[in-house]
Design a protein that fits this description.
The chain is an alpha/beta fold. It has two domains: about 90 residues, Elongation Factor Tu (Ef-tu), domain 3; about 150 residues, Nucleotide-binding domain of ferredoxin-NADP reductase (FNR) module (Rossmann fold, 3-Layer(aba) Sandwich). It is built from five helices and 15 strands. The protein binds flavin-adenine dinucleotide and FE2/S2 (inorganic) cluster (FES).
């Protein structure tokens, strides 16, 4: 099923921690068709300001659509003020999803930085039935930048954390945790989402060990539909749009 634009009802919109918010929207038609790694494009307010929609990975799609987000600017500030029962204009699902690994793969390693952890919840919801060994290597600036992914742990995912200031988990970048990655190219698949330097380090590790993987990229989006070319990113095959050709790309193809 393709993308739909519709007005949906907000089920809840709560501040979970000083940094992280959780939005739940009664968008059953999107929940039925969305795949892990895809995103929704939200018009946070009617009118001209802000003009463009704001993109968010789908965090969960059980019956409703759930989004985990941070307030970083005007659009997310407006979104955070929405209340249960408000209408929300949502376009989606959009973009490319993560590829589900084949049956030879035993280890699914997710490497996330900050809010980049969001699409891994839905990925783990799908993969938990398939008995992969799931591992999340999760980094952030401090303990406040790392969301408690206990629902991911409930899905059987082993979680390792690194923070730059050492306030939670290992002190340093998430690359301090790469020794946890089983380096068997026939059995391990990597997924990454977060800041570019972190994903570049994941790409280096994957190249060194001949591991396959995928990366979910972020750029500032406008149309979200591949039409305006406002979100291009460099790949080994030339410039590609993050919103339409991505956001999920083959890890080896991205030029960081
Ligand atoms: C495919 C995709 C999935 C995303 N998923 C999530 C998610 O699950 N949760 C979440 O909190 N955020 C997610 N984002 C980022 C989110 O879209 C932006 O934080 C949001 O659009 C900012 O809007 P704003 O009006 O609040 O901030 P603005 O006022 O537009 O910008 C505030 C600051 O954030 C920077 N910024 C804005 N958008 C981006 C971006 N896409 N990448 C990097 N920096 C940006 C701006 O350069 C500026 O410095 C995603 C982005 C993409 C492209
Ligand atoms: S935002 Fe218009 S092409 Fe991606």
């Amino acid at each position: 099923m393709g993308a739909n634009q519709n007005s949906y009802t907000i089920v809840s919109n709560e501040r979970l921690t000083p940094r992280f918010w959780h939005l739940c929207v009664d968008a059953e038609s999107i929940a039925d068709s969305v795949q892990p790694g895809q995103f929704i494009h939200i018009k946070v307010r009617e009118g001209m300001e802000p003009f463009f929609r704001r993109p968010f990975s789908v965090y969960r799609a059980l019956n409703h659509i759930e989004v985990l987000y941070e307030v970083v600017g005007k659009g997310t500030e407006i979104l955070s003020q929405k209340k249960k029962g408000d209408a929300l204009d949502v376009l989606g699902p959009l973009g490319t999803p993560f590829t589900i690994p084949d049956e030879n793969i035993e280890n699914v390693v997710m490497v996330g930085g900050g809010i980049g952890v969001a699409p891994f919840m839905m990925l783990s919801d799908l993969l938990k039935a398939k008995e992969y060994k799931m591992l999340l290597l999760y980094g952030g600036r401090s303990k406040d930048h790392v969301y408690d992914m206990k629902e991911l742990a409930k899905n059987g995912c082993d979680i390792h954390i690194a923070t730059n200031d050492g306030s939670h988990g290992v002190k340093g970048f998430v690359s301090e945790l790469f020794s946890e990655i089983p380096p068997d190219s026939n059995k391990t698949r990597i997924y990454t989402c977060g800041p570019k330097p972190m994903m570049a380090a994941v790409q280096d590790f994957a190249r060194t060990h001949n591991l396959k993987g995928e990366a979910s990229c972020e750029e500032v989006l406008a149309c979200g539909l591949g039409a305006c070319l406002g979100c291009v990113t460099k790949t080994e095959q030339g410039y590609k749009t993050v919103c339409y050709d991505g956001p999920v790309f083959d890890l080896k193809d991205i030029v960081f």
